[in-house]
Specification:
Length: about 280
Amino acid sequence: MLRARLSGDRLLPFHTGRRAQYIGNGIVLARVWPRNYIYLDAADTSLTPSILRRGAWERRIMLIIMLSLKRGGTMIDIGANCGYHALAAMRRVGKRSGTVIAFEPQSALCTLIQRSIEANDFLPGMKVMRLAIGAREETGSLGKMAHLKGSASFCFGEDVPDREHVPVVPLPVALEAAAKALGRPVIPDVIKIDVEGFEMDVWEGMREWTRMRERLTIVIEFSPFSYRNAGRDPLAFLHELRAFGFSLHALERLWLRRLDDAACARIAAGDRQVDLVLRKLPRR
């Protein structure tokens, strides 16, 4: 039996082999793991083809997020893109008791995420908010690539002409806004940060807030080349994360590798983006 119509679209049944369908206006509706519907930009040449081919996106990151969450937990997705990880997390924490907030600065992607939330009946526990998370409250100029929808960044130079002006706020301010919208406190168990080289700014706005959290997992894309290009020190960034009580782990193919001083220096000196898992646990 087909699911009910939502926003005028007929949803794909899970019992058939069809994984996706073009529904017009440059939008694809797909079925993805774990049993979620998701709306995707048909013009995107990065996430959309991968999700349509595999039925999933960034499986290792998804697995870490799912293993770090429990029923009734709270996940914050900073730089949510099409919302894949946020939707998967909502399935994990449960729509009746869990909370997921997706922060995404691009208005077009926010619209897609909202439609996906409605298609999966994830209201009211899941919210999408058109905000960028940064070091201070301001209006930022977000550079956007024509066909790489997930590669928008504040770090792009003036040679990227397509731009969108978006509100930027520190994470504590954003969490207060989310709590007001939900009518209850929003206290994250897991935070995912993927902001195309803007990660140090996100950290700057939330680092003092992390002092109050005894238990927290952060999954973050670490971009040493972008930081050095902006005149910042990636190794000092890693040292500061440690100083705030986090253990650092590199996300390898099938496992987490804890980073010692030598590994931190090696990663910071490289040009390759690395997915890191930061864990803060109560002291015994």
